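Why does this matter for the project? Reviewers at the last site visit asked to see concrete outputs rather than summary tables. In response, this paragraph embeds two records directly. Each consists of the residue sequence and, immediately after it, the corresponding structure tokens. Nothing has been edited or filtered.
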Amino acid sequence: MIILYSLFINSSEGSFKTILLVYVDDIILAENDKKEIERVKEALNMTFKIKDLGDLRYFLGFEVVRSKKGIMVNQRKYALEL
């Protein structure tokens, strides 16, 4: 496991498997396997009582948009508020 401040990466055989990013009370969890995501969420919930907000849409002022072409990250909402 690699630990870099609040970024936790669990890799196996040289490839990333589970990525957990923590900022204050917000968490992003990325994983190749949905069953493993559920297992990690259950383990976290037993200790911290987490709330699952579903797929990532906003994080630290960034909007995350998914499409068939991939994932786009922007700050449209933040720019409009300025």
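We now turn to the second protein, recorded in exactly the same manner.
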Amino acid sequence: MTTSLVDRTGQGCAPQADAARPAAPAATVGVKWRQIREEDLPTVAELLSRGFRLRPKAYWLRGLQRQVARALPANCPRYGYVLTDQGRPVGAILMVSSTLDTGAGAVTRCNLSSWYVDPGCRNFASLLVTSVTKKKDVTYFNISPAPHTWKTVEAQGFAPYCLGEMTTVPALAVPHAGTSVTRVTSDPGDLPADEAEILIEHARFGCLSLVVACDGRHYPFVFQKYRIAKRLMPCWRLIYCRDVADFARFAGNLGRVLLLHGRPIVVVDANGPIPGLVGRYSEARGRKYAKGPHVPRLGDLAYTEGVFFN
């Protein structure tokens, strides 16, 4: 079933009911939105390659195809939504949903990613976001908003939870004594089941999953290959850890392993300089927004666009 948006004239009629998706504004013939289906993937990839010209169609198609068989939270879209005008795709918003155990119970969250609408239909762009982020039990978050969109994102009800990032060289820190670092590609056996699954699945998608053992305890970490300085400088991005303080504590140990894998620099989400790390904090990039009942914590980008679209 297709749910329609208000047309360019402001005329409309009542939307069609659909319990499986958010309520939509008034409808009319012309511009409509619906969930992306598997047969739409090549078309959506082509659309996004027009909107994000540094990313080819193959990049988007690969990331979308990684969603085909993923387990999803109930009533969440597999790929996101497409905006059509007279049946022709003119916009899309990708949505990467997951269920995570926070220790206080399972929570559902949805990473809004790669929001683009062709110039002729830009007046529907904000309406599209508002229409698909109405579930009160879901936390929606945006981890890559361009600075010129910050005010728009805030007007849609989102609040910043991460103001910037720290670029650090962890190998310069003093290593913690009596500590070992092990790469994970299969069940490590020393972590809770949910964390072991995070490390194994992210390793499958090309991330570097590590476990630090110290004083009889085990600490999980996931790093993703990343680029900064206009994509000219290769580095790592911290995708997952229990607490950023754990990364600072074991920075020297982790840094030496990361250096052996060819990239000495790590980018870490932060709201200020992180004690114990050698590097530079900046708010020029790295801002992240969320709205909903369970705001993501710093150091947790598991199952987000950065993992699947790389």
